[in-house]
C-alpha cells in the first residue's frame, strides 16, 4: 500500500484538484448538535430546564469495568479487609453488562491473575485453553515461511491461555461484587469534576432524554455526580475523559504521544476435524506491504463447539489514505494458509478496537491530585507480544496499593504518587523498557524487514541497548494527500470467507438510540468536506471499521456532505485517532449504546 505517483495517476490528481476547489465554495449543513460543541447555556431551548444533579459520595470511584478496573476494585477491597477498614469502592461501566464492550485476542499471561487471586482455578476462572502449540509465519501472497518460536522470544506462548476476555472480565466482576465492590453497568461517565483547587473531585454520568437536534425531551433526566477521594480512570485505549486529564495536568510533559493500531477480530465455528484447541498462530507479511506495520493472530479455543478467534492488526501510522483495515482483514482470510482453518465453518461474531502501540516511550505521568490512570488508558501494551491484559491488571493492583497507603478519614482528596514509583519498580516497567525500540524500529527505509531484523537484535540484547528510538509524528500526521497515493483495488467479498462491512457490523450487536445527538462530534462541520474529502479523498469511510462515515450528494446536487451513521459505531476510537484534521471527537453516547460482544 505504498504511496506513489505515476503517469497514469496524473488525471486522478487533476480530478482531486478540481474537486478541492469545488468543496471550498459550497455551503455546509449542520451535523453536530452535541452540547460539548454547542453549549446549552446559549441555547434558549434549555433556559427553564432543571440542571441540578443528584450527588453520591464514595471513597474510590473507578471509571471502566474491564480487566484493569475490576482488578483495582478487587485489590482495594482485599486491602481493606486485611486491615479491617471500611472502604466504599464503586465501579461504573458504560456497557449494559460487565464484559459487553470487551474485545481482545486474547492470549493472556496469567502472571497478574496469579498475584491477585492465587486460587483462580478453584474459583472457576474461565481460562480453559492452555496454549499447546505456537506457530509464527511470514506470509507471501500464496505461501509462507515458518519462523522460529523459541523460549524468550515474543511469540513464545507456552504457559499462557487462550480466552474470551469478555468472559474473564465478567468473572472478575463477580469476584469484585463478592468482595463488596458496588458495580454499576449501563452507566457511562461523561465528565470529570474538579474541586476549587483543581484536583479531581469525581465524575458525572451522562444525561438521558436529549433529542437528536440537541433539545431536551419531555423525559429528560440529568446525570448524577459521584464524588470520591480518588478517581481511577480505566477507560481502555484512548479514553475520552483521559484526553481531558492529559491536557489539564500536562501528563505527557515528559513522554511521547501515543501511537496506535486497530485490531479487527472475528469468531468462527469450524468443522471438528480442523479444531486444534490450544493452537496459537501469528503471521506477518502479506497482504501488507513492507511500509505498513501489522500482522495477524489465529487462536483455537477449547469451547463446547469447535471455535477459533481470528484477527488482524494494522498500525494506524500508515500513510496511504486508501488503506481500509477492514478490507485488508477480509482479503487476508483468503490466503491458503489461513483459509484452510476457516473453510466449511461459519462466522458468528465480528468486532474492532484501537490499541496502544507506544509502549515505554508513551507512558504518561500516571498520578495527579485526586486520581490516576491504569491499564490501557495509560498505554500498557507489549507490542511484540501483543499482550497487555496482565499489565493492565498489575498496574491496577499497584494503583490500588498506592491509594490505600494514603487513605485516611480526614483526607478529602488522595494524590497516589507512590503508584508511579511502584509501577517503575515492577515487572511491567522493566518488560516494556526491554522491548521499547522494536515498534519504532519499523520506521526505516526497509520497513518490515529492517524492523524485524532489529527486533531479533533487541530480543537477543534483552533491551540493554543504550539508546531509545522515538515514534515521531502522531498517526494522523502520517497520512499523505490522495494525489500522492494510488487507490487500492480490493477484491469483492465472496460471502464465504470474506464479507461486506454492514453484514459484519450486524454481528457486533451494536445499538444506539436513534433520537439522540450523534456522539461522534465535529469541532467544525465544514472541515470534513473541505479538508478530509478535498485533500485526502474521504479516508473516514475507509479507516472506520463500522460504516459510520460516508460522503453523500447534497440534495441540491451541488457537492457532497458527510453523513455520520452514529448508530453503527462500535466504540473503536479509530476516527478520533486517525482523522487527519483532528476534527472528530468521540464522546459517550446516551444510555447503554454500543456493541454487545458477549465474550468475544
Automatic annotation (TrEMBL):
<keyword id="KW-0813">Transport</keyword>
<dbReference type="InterPro" id="IPR049398">
    <property type="entry name" value="ETF-QO/FixC_UQ-bd"/>
</dbReference>
<feature type="domain" description="4Fe-4S ferredoxin-type">
    <location>
        <begin position="560"/>
        <end position="589"/>
    </location>
</feature>
<keyword id="KW-0285">Flavoprotein</keyword>
<protein>
    <recommendedName>
        <fullName>Electron transfer flavoprotein-ubiquinone oxidoreductase</fullName>
        <ecNumber>1.5.5.1</ecNumber>
    </recommendedName>
</protein>
<dbReference type="GO" id="GO:0046872">
    <property type="term" value="F:metal ion binding"/>
</dbReference>
<dbReference type="InterPro" id="IPR007859">
    <property type="entry name" value="ETF-QO/FixX_C"/>
</dbReference>
<dbReference type="Pfam" id="PF21162">
    <property type="entry name" value="ETFQO_UQ-bd"/>
</dbReference>
<dbReference type="InterPro" id="IPR023753">
    <property type="entry name" value="FAD/NAD-binding_dom"/>
</dbReference>
<keyword id="KW-0411">Iron-sulfur</keyword>
<dbReference type="GO" id="GO:0004174">
    <property type="term" value="F:electron-transferring-flavoprotein dehydrogenase activity"/>
</dbReference>
<comment type="function">
    <text>Accepts electrons from ETF and reduces ubiquinone.</text>
</comment>
<dbReference type="InterPro" id="IPR040156">
    <property type="entry name" value="ETF-QO"/>
</dbReference>
<dbReference type="InterPro" id="IPR036188">
    <property type="entry name" value="FAD/NAD-bd_sf"/>
</dbReference>
<keyword id="KW-0479">Metal-binding</keyword>
<keyword id="KW-0560">Oxidoreductase</keyword>
<keyword id="KW-0274">FAD</keyword>
<keyword id="KW-0830">Ubiquinone</keyword>
<dbReference type="InterPro" id="IPR017896">
    <property type="entry name" value="4Fe4S_Fe-S-bd"/>
</dbReference>
<dbReference type="GO" id="GO:0005743">
    <property type="term" value="C:mitochondrial inner membrane"/>
</dbReference>
<keyword id="KW-0408">Iron</keyword>
<dbReference type="Pfam" id="PF05187">
    <property type="entry name" value="Fer4_ETF_QO"/>
</dbReference>
<keyword id="KW-0004">4Fe-4S</keyword>
<keyword id="KW-0249">Electron transport</keyword>
<dbReference type="Pfam" id="PF07992">
    <property type="entry name" value="Pyr_redox_2"/>
</dbReference>
<dbReference type="GO" id="GO:0051539">
    <property type="term" value="F:4 iron, 4 sulfur cluster binding"/>
</dbReference>
Amino acid at each position: 500500500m505504498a504511496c506513489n505517483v505515476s503517469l497514469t495517476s496524473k488525471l486522478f490528481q487533476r480530478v482531486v484538484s478540481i474537486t478541492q476547489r469545488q468543496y471550498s465554495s459550497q455551503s455546509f449543513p449542520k451535523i453536530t448538535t452535541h452540547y460539548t460543541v454547542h453549549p446549552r447555556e446559549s441555547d434558549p431551548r434549555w433556559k427553564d430546564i432543571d440542571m441540578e444533579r443528584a450527588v453520591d459520595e464514595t471513597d474510590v470511584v473507578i471509571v471502566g469495568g474491564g480487566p484493569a478496573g475490576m482488578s483495582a476494585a478487587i485489590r482495594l477491597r482485599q486491602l481493606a479487609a486485611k486491615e479491617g477498614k471500611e472502604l466504599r469502592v464503586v465501579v461504573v461501566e458504560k456497557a449494559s453488562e460487565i464484559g459487553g464492550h470487551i474485545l481482545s485476542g486474547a492470549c493472556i499471561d496469567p502472571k497478574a491473575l496469579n498475584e491477585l487471586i492465587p486460587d483462580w482455578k478453584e474459583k472457576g476462572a474461565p481460562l480453559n485453553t492452555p496454549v499447546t502449540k505456537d506457530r509464527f509465519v511470514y506470509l507471501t501472497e500464496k505461501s509462507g515461511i515458518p519462523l522460529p518460536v523459541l523460549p524468550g522470544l515474543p511469540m513464545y506462548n507456552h504457559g499462557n491461555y487462550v480466552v474470551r476476555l469478555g468472559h474473564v472480565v465478567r468473572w472478575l466482576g463477580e469476584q469484585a461484587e463478592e468482595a463488596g465492590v458496588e458495580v454499576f453497568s449501563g452507566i457511562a461517565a461523561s465528565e470529570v469534576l474538579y474541586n476549587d483547587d483543581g484536583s479531581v473531585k469525581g465524575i458525572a454520568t451522562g444525561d438521558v432524554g436529549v433529542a437528536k437536534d440537541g433539545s431536551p425531551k419531555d423525559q429528560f433526566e440529568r446525570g448524577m455526580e459521584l464524588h470520591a477521594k480518588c478517581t481511577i480512570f480505566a477507560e481502555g485505549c484512548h479514553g475520552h475523559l483521559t484526553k481531558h486529564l492529559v491536557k489539564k495536568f500536562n501528563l505527557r510533559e515528559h513522554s511521547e504521544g501515543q501511537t496506535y493500531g486497530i485490531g479487527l477480530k472475528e469468531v468462527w465455528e469450524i468443522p471438528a476435524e480442523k479444531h486444534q484447541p490450544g493452537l496459537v498462530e501469528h503471521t506477518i507479511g502479506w497482504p501488507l506491504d513492507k511500509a505498513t506495520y501489522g500482522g495477524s493472530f489465529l487462536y483455537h479455543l477449547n469451547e463446547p463447539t469447535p471455535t477459533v478467534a481470528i484477527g488482524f492488526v494494522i498500525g494506524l501510522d500508515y500513510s496511504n489514505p486508501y488503506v481500509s483495515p477492514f478490507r485488508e482483514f477480509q482479503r487476508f482470510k483468503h490466503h491458503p494458509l489461513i483459509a484452510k482453518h476457516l473453510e466449511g465453518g461459519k462466522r458468528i461474531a465480528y468486532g474492532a478496537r484501537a490499541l496502544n502501540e507506544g509502549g515505554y516511550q508513551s507512558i504518561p505521568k500516571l498520578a495527579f491530585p485526586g486520581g490516576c490512570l491504569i491499564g490501557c488508558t495509560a498505554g500498557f501494551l507489549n507490542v511484540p507480544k501483543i499482550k497487555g491484559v496482565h499489565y493492565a491488571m498489575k498496574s491496577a493492583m499497584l494503583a490500588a496499593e498506592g491509594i490505600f497507603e494514603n487513605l485516611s478519614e480526614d483526607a478529602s482528596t488522595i494524590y497516589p504518587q507512590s503508584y508511579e514509583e511502584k509501577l517503575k519498580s515492577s515487572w511491567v516497567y522493566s518488560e516494556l523498557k526491554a522491548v521499547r525500540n522494536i515498534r519504532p524500529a519499523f520506521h526505516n527505509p526497509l520497513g518490515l524487514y529492517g524492523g524485524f531484523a532489529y527486533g531479533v537484535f533487541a530480543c537477543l540484547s534483552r533491551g540493554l541497548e543504550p539508546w531509545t528510538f522515538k515514534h515521531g509524528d502522531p498517526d494522523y500526521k502520517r497520512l499523505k494527500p490522495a494525489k500522492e497515493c494510488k487507490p487500492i483495488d480490493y477484491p469483492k467479498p465472496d460471502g464465504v470467507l470474506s464479507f461486506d462491512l454492514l453484514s459484519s457490523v450486524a454481528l457486533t450487536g451494536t445499538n444506539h438510540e436513534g433520537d439522540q445527538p450523534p456522539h461522534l462530534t465535529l469541532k467544525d462541520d465544514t472541515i470534513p468536506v473541505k479538508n478530509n474529502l478535498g485533500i485526502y479523498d474521504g479516508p473516514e469511510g475507509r479507516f472506520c471499521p463500522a460504516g459510520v462515515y460516508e460522503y453523500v450528494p447534497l440534495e441540491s446536487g451541488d457537492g457532497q456532505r458527510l453523513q455520520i451513521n452514529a448508530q453503527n459505531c462500535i466504540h473503536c476510537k479509530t476516527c478520533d485517532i486517525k482523522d487527519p484534521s483532528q476534527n472528530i471527537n468521540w464522546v459517550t453516547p446516551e444510555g447503554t449504546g454500543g456493541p454487545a460482544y458477549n465474550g468475544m
